[in-house]
Amino acid sequence: MDSLPTSIVVLTGAGISAESGIETFRAADGLWANHPVEDVATPEGFAANPQLVYEFYNQRRRQLLSPATKPNAAHSALAKFEHEFDGEFLLVTQNVDNLHERAGSSKLLHMHGELLKMRCLNSRLVYDISEDFDFDTECKCCRSPGNLRPHIVWFGEMPFHMNQINMALEACDLFIAIGTSGNVYPASGFYQTAKIRKAHTVELNLERTGSSFDQHHYGPATEIVPAFLDSILQLQR
Ligand code: NAD
Q1: Which residues of 21-45 are buried (b: 16+ CB within 10 A; e: fewer)?
Q2: From CA 69, how far away is CA 75, in angstroms rounded?
Q3: For a Cys-Cys bond, which of 56, 64, 100, 126 suits 105, CB 3.0-4.6 Å?
Q4: 0.85 cut: is pTM over it?
């Protein structure tokens, strides 16, 4: 990049949290933490075996809240960048962990939901949750068990905040995708939406994904994300 961008959208995926010890979703073998994604990340999987799905997300939540799981240098670099960059900025994450906000990011949208939230199937009200919950947990609004589900967007469901995300993509002049395989729609198409409006598109990933971005940097997120964001801030000085 030679000139300073005025409006930036960053999309992050599971790869940015890999060095914090959180497993990515491996599209090649269709497994997420050793479970077929159809079993744990679809409405059909939840209907077939709710107890397995509750336990899967309970385990992910427990791991997220364990003292060993912390934001890494890539999360911190994005939070620092948000505060120092003078232009428009939006961070969109596919991740359901809370490592971006723990690092200090606030211009942040969770398009695939959050591990630390649950939702009532009747009222659609969303509640914070840091403990395990399951079919037997009594809902705060219904006062009966069996109505709560993880506040996670499963395959086949509509992601959250799409209007706001599309507006930002159409207005940005720099789009950066970090640690995402480009296998999960609609996030996989964001760089094309940004490109239509002539944004410069950059991929930061451990390895090539096959998507045709204008610029690529390969390596661990903890190294390439701080370095790339610093290079933009240099243009601002
Ligand atoms: P993905 O798991 O499909 O792909 C991960 C990508 O990260 C790969 O392209 C890989 O090359 C890259 N990567 C791995 N380690 C990296 C590192 N250290 N530095 C930089 N890049 C690295 O991820 P996705 O595209 O986000 O799709 C997964 C879906 O599963 C998402 O929808 C998400 O909701 C969910 N998921 C979330 C989490 C989380 O919240 N942390 C974890 C697993 C899966």
Answers
A1: ebebbeeeeeebeebebebbbbeeb
A2: 13
A3: 100
A4: yes
3-state secondary structure of 165: helix
Residue 148: in which H helix or E strand, if any?
A: strand 148-152
The model's pLDDT over 20-30, given as tens digits with 9 standing for 90+, comes to 999 888 755 66
* Known active-site residue 112: yes
Structure tokens of 156? 């086949």
How far, in Å, CA of 215 to CA of 120, rounded?
43
Q: Which atom of ligand 1 is nearest to the CA of 25?
A: 2
Q: Of 16, 19, 25, which is best to mutate to test ligand 1, by the most ligand atoms within 8 angstroms of its C-beta?
A: 25
Tokens of 54: 């509750």
